[in-house]
Design brief:
It is built from 13 helices and no strands. With 235 residues, it is mainly α. α1 packs parallel to α3, α1 (3-29) packs parallel to α8 (115-144) and α2 packs antiparallel against α8 (115-144).
């Protein structure tokens, strides 16, 4: 890992503290005790699903339904696992390593040039998030007891801002850029008709469309290469 990667991890951890504070404040407003707020943050470690969980429970929803909604939002981790699973250790060590899987660790490890660097980035960033996110939750719970209107601090804006900053370098790749554009369009189009958090899952359609297009184009190119007449026509 480079010095730039280490600086990026520090920035991510600092951002996680701020975002965790927003989560802690929201949990306090929802009536969650401090110990439960911190426990959820350390065991789930899936920002958006935790926000969704406390939001549903605070609105009077059943905890079981809130948990199911959080699991639905976290189905994006299936795709994350396929992307970075090859960097995780095998055997018993895979389970604690898989617990570190989140948006930030995947984004940072995917930007590395070698498997060794990707593995190091994944572990270091994952441990940093595991420490900084619950710390932010703890601070936010305390802040919620001191500030009359915690929402006025605007801490909730830190989460999307961090993810956007992590995603921008990857947008240089045309396929990634189109997947992002299509996914964002699908999420925005369904925001007003689907429950909170579900449009995030819908946005994965951008990845599916781009991958399907890539495969179709790849098949077309293979046919052209196999048929001399088509090669001539392609020229």
């Amino acid at each position: 890992m480079t010095a730039g990667d280490r600086r990026t991890i520090l920035v991510i951890c600092a951002s996680m503290v701020i975002i965790g504070m927003s989560y802690g404040v929201s949990a306090h407003e929802g009536g969650f005790p401090v110990w439960l707020t911190v426990l959820i943050s350390a065991t789930v470690l899936g920002g958006s699903s935790e926000f969704l969980f406390i939001g549903i429970v605070a609105a009077g929803g059943a905890p079981l339904l809130a948990a199911l909604a959080g699991i639905l939002v976290n189905t994006r981790s299936l795709g994350y696992g396929l992307a970075v699973g090859r960097y995780l250790p095998r055997g018993r060590r895979m389970f604690p390593a898989a617990h570190l899987l989140n948006d930030e660790t995947v984004a940072l490890s995917a930007a590395q040039t070698t498997p060794a660097k990707a593995r190091a980035a994944y572990v270091m960033c994952g441990i940093g998030v595991l420490l900084s996110w619950p710390l932010g939750a703890l601070l936010g719970s305390g802040l919620g007891r001191l500030v009359a209107d915690p929402q006025s601090l605007g801490l909730d804006a830190a989460f999307p801002a961090l993810l956007l900053a992590l995603a921008i370098p990857s947008l240089r790749d045309p396929q990634t850029r189109w997947a992002g554009i299509l996914g964002a369009g699908a999420a925005v189009a369904t925001t007003s008709v689907l429950p909170a958090g579900v449009p995030i899952v819908v946005s994965l359609i951008g990845v599916a469309v781009v991958e399907l297009w890539r495969r179709v184009r790849g098949t077309d190119n293979a046919v052209v290469q196999d048929v001399p007449e088509l090669q001539e026509a392609a020229r």
